[in-house]
Amino acid sequence: MGKYIFRRLVISIITIWLIATCSFFLLHMLPGNPFATDQILSQDMIDQLMDYYGLNEPLWKQYLTFMGNLLHGDFGTSYKYAGQSVNGIIAQKFPISAQLGLQAYLLSLPLGILFGIIAARKRGKAIDYGLVAFAVLGVSVPVFIVAALLQYVFAIKLQWFPVAQWKSFSYTILPTLTLAIGSIAGRTRTMRTLMLEVISEDYVKTAKAKGLSSAQIVWSHQIRNAIIPMIPNLGLEIVSILMGSFVVEQIFAIPGIGAYFVNSVTGLDYTMTLGLTVFFGVFVVGANFIIDLIYGLVDPRIRVVK
Amino acid sequence: MSEHLLEVRDLAVSFDTYAGEVQAVRGISFYLDKGETLSIVGESGCGKSVSIQTIMKLLPSPPSRIKSGSILYRGEELVTKTDKEMESYRGKEFSMVFQDSMTSLNPTMRVGRQLCEGIIKHQKVSREKAKEIAIDMLRQVGLPNPEKTYMRYPHSLSGGMQQRVMIAIAIACNPQILFADEPTTALDVTMQAQILDLMNGLKKRLGTAIILITHDLGVVAQMADRISVMYAGKIVESGTADEIFYNPRHPYTWGLLGSMPSVEQSSRAAKSELLSIPGTPPDLFAPPKGCAFAARCNYCMGACLKEDAPEFKADDGHMVRCWLMDERAPKVTPPVGKYAAVTGSAPAQIPAKEEG
Fold first, then answer.
1. A95 lies in a domain?
2. Nearest CA in chain A to B123
3. pLDDT averaged over 10-residue windows placed end to end, chain B, 356 residues
4. Which of A262, B7, B111, B122 could form a disulfide with B92 if both were Cys (CB 3.0 to 4.6 A apart)?
5. Is A139 part of a structural domain of the chain?
6. Can you give the residue range of the structural domain that contains A125?
7. Does residue A73 fall inside a structural domain?
8. Which chain B residues are within 8 Å of A207, Cβ to Cβ?
């Protein structure tokens, strides 16, 4: 097991290095420079700034500096938000995005699984059709429409929750719902399919032949086995729910990290873009690493042989 | 009124599908007494498994549906019992060993826990006591190192060991009837013999009655007291093992016996080739009007196409559903050759396995 973890760790580090390197060179291949769009700056000033940030150096030298800083966990200073380090911005803004994402995740995980189980158990009945209809809608209706709808109904008409901004817990409810609905829907569909597959397995028949009650069969034989194939997705999903929050953050005027990511790319804020890319890269790779370990714990068949 | 342990009368089971009704079982009757082994033989899709899974009510309904008939267990009607009521029968009164032990055990659960589930449910004992019983069961089915096996996962056991675990699960609560649905089909021949020995031994020791489903006549010969031959959802011939092996009366039974390879056969340098019954079984969406076997039968007569044969009594307890038994029918001598080879040897010495 130790050897397995070590190997996965090495692979993870290589993956992150590849992410950093590829994004670095791709970003620098883009035409223009971080200051070109600024109307006030004269050419002289731009040259000075480029010199100051070391952007006139040969690319390989810049790359080495970037990598050297990265090894120390330093993402550098932002070109656009003068004087602010990328690390500082992440430390300040990411917790907000993370709270939103996590709330949505914690809401969608049990609900999606529960809906999937109910739909599969009541296959062909009204409640199944209802849940499947919800799932199809939830997956296909874009986030910004869901957001607008929720804002209209719950904030403007019923006035239960504030329309936008991020001040107290009640502000978080609508954006959380918006973000969660899509992933509840997706998970309901997946879980329903997986449950239906498991229901017709032979070992379920064996369990029934033992005289177990249907509640026992569902609980100890069906749900666990149905969830296993879902686990690899759980890691990716927590990441995608964080990414998805960029749009939601815009709509609800939440001061999360999403806006910084989008603006930094359009403004060629190299350090910011790279810093955030590597940060999320570490997140994705780390999540997958943990999920793989959990997978081995849950399914004995893929446990690594010593 | 019924002194049989289990009595099935005119049981008919259908599946309602989008394409129509599939009449999987079309009126079968049989009985089982305490401690005996009844074997139901027939080719794939003839309704063997459906019949016994219906008795345990294991089939999901819909699509399956008991159209008519009755299932009496110790004089009690099971057809009208609800799923909830059946729970106290399953595992305790009846239990089942399935064909494919690999898929019949839950891959994510330790063997021991799968065994304990039923024990805890039916014997109402504590977890520790259940574990004791479970380990004893694993020992009884001949698994080496039962304490260790208890903690193992199914995928780390061989096919034969898995089937032993299945049997341990099945007999854990001392059932009156053990249904064995092709218990050895997925195993190689040596493993087969061991599993059959085990089942025979348990039957003698525990007095469990067995209904054995198979298409392997070699297995039948080793195990059965009585045999029912099924074809297209009906029992076409039933009698004692001796009657079926030495005095078969239905052309389908002749065909089955004839298509069984034997050791003597091959030693006689393949004097006669391995027979097969031409054609395929009828479509159970729309079973033919007359005898279902008529289209494949060498002895088909006019009456066979018009109306299905009634049950004729060849002997006391030996039932044949064939018009050849009618006194107006021409006298037919059963084919020799393959079939004679079978009669020439004692049934218990037939180790061969049918192809497929």
1. yes
2. A211
3. 80 88 88 91 86 88 85 88 87 88 88 90 89 90 89 89 89 89 83 86 88 86 89 90 87 84 57 72 82 84 84 86 83 60 38 38
4. B122
5. yes
6. 90-263
7. no
8. 106, 117
